[in-house]
Each structure stands twice: as structure tokens, then as C-alpha cells.
Write a structure and sequence with these properties.
Layout lengths: L10 E3 L2 E3 L4 E6 L4 E7 L3 H19 L3 H17 L1 H11 L4 H24 L4 E2 L10 E9 L2 E5 L7 H12 L3 E5 L6 H12 L7 E3 L4 H10 L3 E7 L2 H11 L3 E5 L4 E5 L5 H13 L9 E7 L3 H13 L19 H16 L3 E4 L3 E2 L2 E2 L2 E4 L6 H4 L6 E7 L2 H9 L3 E2 L1 E5 L3 H10 L4 E4 L15 E2 L2 E2 L4 H7 L1 E9 L4
Parallel strand pairs: 7-8, 7-10, 8-9, 10-11, 12-13, 12-20, 13-18, 17-18, 20-21
Antiparallel strand pairs: 1-2, 3-4, 5-6, 6-24, 11-23, 14-17, 15-16, 19-22
Helix pairs in contact: 1-7, 2-4, 2-6, 3-4, 4-5, 5-15, 9-10
């Protein structure tokens, strides 16, 4: 038995909290302070989790809908009762300010409440077999069954709610689930795991393996009895996982480079406020973050002025301060990358209108213009507090600019014209169009996913449960022989 020190955490495998000799440090990205250590999981640990999940699937398949609902609602109650504790964990290990962390805790509770509600609703449909000649004596229906073992891989930017979005629907629909949380932010996931155990979730249904992705993800992804991989992360990693997964279902949200369109008839001041909020929340480390502000040349001057005013008012530097608006980057490497992309764009002719400097792991909220369309900053997901303004003259030009990158998660559109709104809904190649709102607007019940490099499949509780179940057709032949 390995003796645990005060700051050490354990991973959860086969119904027990498991410790290891080799550990991984977890740091507060704002201060680089060591706040905890977690086990460095291995291939053998993941293989043990897979064996456990096979047992868990048998247990989960025998649980009633009522049992699953009660456990989920019990976890909801625990989150709400202990939301300050988990908010402090979210903020300490991650990139969110304390105010943002409290909102995430509330959202996670809502996500799991939705899981409980959808557990009672998800089901099959009746089928009219007698519509086909010769089948007059047949009747039947479809039934949904759990898909099996779900492999869930989560990112650092929403360390509680995105975990809830994967393990909640999996448990609600009767599956076993193995979670690999982000290496940088495992503490929120382990906290939520404890709440599920306290709520009465039988052992083996949920396994959580911490560690480096290269060590523990391959056996999870490649195992034939893992029937669905649910991954949120970067495009390049997603492409590799898809190749390695083999013949199984894949649900992947792979990021974005979201356009935010402002037409000449828009409420420009309101649009600027929404754009700045959408660009810099969570330090820009949000897959729905506003990155490319595409603005009619008729209003671009006013829009830019309002954006700069809103940005200048943002506070940052102490994410535990309730008045702070913008948190740090997750680590120094990412902060250096973001500034490197900014500097490269400036070298290629772009102009920094505000921001553009780095302080430790903090990057100033930054707005740029004249960013070259072939630059990394224009084409790829920045995943940091940087946005750019570009003007357009015609509707067709706006659509060309909006659609020309290899991402299509969501778009924000500001206009007072119903016709323009409907045209953008038709012409934008994205998974969601938010009219008179920021691209980063989302509720946890809605279908969520994108086109092109933004991923495959849809999340959102009900849609995730559809992905995590399989239909079976039942037909009765009641003709007398």
C-alpha cells in the first residue's frame, strides 16, 4: 500500500482509488504553484480499467431507468451543495476566473439534471410493418440499447462540465465509461467521480485513468470492446485517434475558428460587447471563442471603437479576484505559442490595435487588424485571447471570408434583417448560427458539433445519448399458421 501525502490524489479503477509511485504534478497556471499530484497511469492501468468496464457494463445494463435517474440527481444535489468547493478547484487548476468557475459548476449540475430527464425519455418508436404487401400480420417497434463501453477523453478548458457532458449521458443510457481527463486539469474530474460514488453508482461502471495521453489513450482507443470514443480536443489529435480507433463510433469536437459577422443594419454597440465577451472569456481558450470579426465597411469604424473600449475595460492578473474578467493561458508553452502567432502576423503586415503583450502565463486581451489570410492566426484556432477585425463590402464577400477556413463549429451574426439572418443560416458552413448573439453562446441541451475540421457527431445531452445507444428492430408475426 502506497502512503498518500496530503496533496496527492488517486485515480479510480475497478472500484478502488488507486495510487502509484510515479506521479504527475498539477500546477496553478496563474502562479505556477504546485497544487496537487496525480498518478501517472500506464498501459497496464488502462487495461485494468477495460477489464473493470466489462464488468461494469453487465451491472449497468441491469439497472433500471429510475436507479440511473436517482444517482444522477443525487450528484446534481451534491454539486449544488458544494459548488464553492468545486469552483475553487476549477479555478485553481485551470484557466477560468473564480466567477467563470462558479458558472461552470452550475452548468455541470444542469448538464447532469438533463441527463436524468433524458434517461426517462429516450426510447424507440412503433413501426407499421403492414405498410408493405404481404406483411399485414406483422407489427413491431424499435428499442434503444446501450452501445457498451464508452471511452471519454476531455480537455483542460472546461474540466468539470465537459466531463459531465461525457460521463453523464453514458451513465444515463446504461453504458460503462472510462474517462481520461486532461493531464493539466484532472482534479475536477476526480472530484466529480467521488460525487458519483457517494451518490451510489455501482463500482466498475465508471473508471478514471489519469496520466499522459501517449501512455494510456492508445489501449483505450484501439480496444475492440470500446464501442464509442467521445473526444474533445485538437484537430490533429482527433485525426490520429480516428485512424487508430478502427470500426467503432466516434464523436469528436475538434475546435473552431469562429466567424462573427456584423452587418450594416446591426446594433453595433451591442455587437461589439458580445464580440469582446465571446473573444476573451476563459482567456480565449474556448472552442466557440470569437476569433474573426467580419464587419461591414459601413460600420467597421464604430464597431472597432466600441470593441477597443470594451477590451480596455477588461481586468486580468488575479483569477481569484471576483472582478477579473480574463484568466491565464494553461501553461507557459501555450502563452509563448499565442504570442508567437501574434508576432508572426505582425511581421507579415498585421497591426495590433490593443494588447499583444505577455505577462507570465497571461496574454493581454488582443485585437488586431490587417491579419494576412494565409497566416496561422487567420487560418487556425488561436485558443487564446486574440481576435481580429476585417471589413467586407458585400454579403457574398462576407460568406466567402466566413467559410474559407477549415473549421465550422458556430458563427455569430448581428443583423436586424430577417432576410439576412435566414440567408446566413443557409450559407454559413457551421454547426450552429447564433443570430444577434456571440458565436460562443451555448446551452447544454442543444445539439452541439460542427462541420469540416470542427469534428464529427453531436454532443448535447439528448444527442450524446443517441450516439451512445444502438437501435434494435423488433417484429412480431402474429399470423395463424
Amino acid at each position: 500500500m502506497i502512503e498518500m501525502k496530503k496533496h496527492e490524489q488517486a485515480m479510480f479503477i475497478a472500484g478502488i482509488w488507486k495510487q502509484k509511485e510515479e506521479m504527475i504534478n498539477v500546477y496553478d497556471p496563474a502562479t505556477d504553484e504546485l497544487i496537487a499530484t496525480v498518478p501517472k497511469g500506464t498501459k497496464a492501468d488502462m487495461e485494468e480499467a477495460l477489464r473493470s468496464a466489462k464488468k461494469g457494463l453487465k451491472i449497468a445494463s441491469k439497472m433500471s431507468t429510475r436507479q440511473r435517474m436517482d444517482i444522477l440527481l443525487n450528484v446534481v444535489e451534491r454539486i449544488l451543495n458544494e459548488r464553492e468547493e468545486i469552483a475553487q478547484i476549477i479555478s485553481s487548476e485551470g484557466v477560468k476566473t473564480i466567477s467563470e468557475a462558479r458558472r461552470e459548476a452550475r452548468r455541470a449540475a444542469e448538464t447532469l439534471r438533463l441527463c436524468a430527464e433524458e434517461a426517462r425519455r429516450i426510447g424507440g418508436t412503433t413501426l407499421n410493418f403492414d405498410q408493405m404487401e404481404g406483411s399485414e400480420h406483422r407489427h413491431g417497434y424499435t428499442v434503444r440499447f446501450p452501445i457498451g463501453i464508452v471511452g471519454a477523453i476531455t480537455p483542460f478548458n472546461d474540466p468539470l462540465n465537459l466531463v459531465a457532458h461525457k460521463i453523464g449521458p453514458a451513465i444515463a443510457s446504461g453504458n460503462a465509461v472510462i474517462l481520461k481527463p486532461a493531464t493539466e486539469t484532472p482534479l475536477s474530474a476526480l472530484w466529480l467521480t467521488r460525487k458519483f460514488i457517494e451518490a451510489g453508482l455501482p463500482k466498475h461502471i465508471l473508471n478514471v485513468v489519469t496520466g499522459r495521453g501517449q501512455d494510456v489513450i492508445p489501449p483505450l482507443v484501439e480496444h475492440p470492446e470500446v464501442r464509442l470514443i467521445s473526444f474533445t480536443g485538437g484537430l490533429r489529435t482527433g485525426e490520429k485517434l480516428a485512424k487508430d480507433a478502427g470500426l467503432k463510433k466516434i464523436s469528436m469536437e475538434l475546435g473552431a475558428n469562429s466567424p462573427f459577422l456584423v452587418f450594416a443594419d446591426a446594433d453595433v454597440k451591442k455587437a461589439a460587447k458580445a464580440a469582446v465577451s465571446g473573444a476573451f472569456a476563459a482567456g480565449g481558450q474556448n472552442c466557440l471563442s470569437v476569433q474573426r470579426m467580419l464587419v461591414s465597411e459601413q460600420v467597421v469604424e464604430d464597431f472597432t471603437k466600441y470593441c477597443l473600449e470594451e477590451t480596455a475595460a477588461l481586468q486580468f492578473g488575479n483569477k481569484k479576484n471576483e472582478q477579473d474578467d480574463v484568466g491565464p493561458l494553461i501553461n507557459e508553452r501555450e502563452a509563448n505559442r499565442v504570442i508567437g502567432w501574434v508576432d508572426a502576423a505582425v511581421d507579415a503586415g498585421a497591426t495590433v490595435l490593443i494588447g499583444g503583450k505577455k505577462y507570465g502565463n497571461y496574454v493581454e486581451p488582443t485585437i488586431m487588424q490587417d491579419v494576412p489570410r494565409d497566416s496561422l492566426l487567420y487560418q487556425e484556432e488561436i485558443f487564446g485571447p486574440v481576435a481580429m477585425i476585417q471589413s467586407f463590402t458585400t454579403y457574398d464577400e462576407a460568406m466567402t471570408l466566413a467559410n474559407e477556413v477549415n473549421y465550422g463549429l458556430q458563427a455569430g451574426v448581428f443583423t436586424t434583417s430577417l432576410q439576412t439572418a435566414h440567408n446566413t443560416i443557409r450559407d454559413l458552413h457551421v454547426g450552429g448560427v447564433m443570430i444577434n448573439d456571440s458565436s460562443d453562446f451555448r446551452i447544454d441541451a442543444m445539439p452541439f458539433g460542427g462541420t469540416k475540421g470542427s469534428g464529427v457527431g453531436r454532443e448535447g445531452v439528448y444527442d450524446a445519448m443517441l450516439e451512445m445507444t444502438e437501435q434494435r428492430v423488433v417484429c412480431f408475426n402474429d399470423q395463424d399458421q
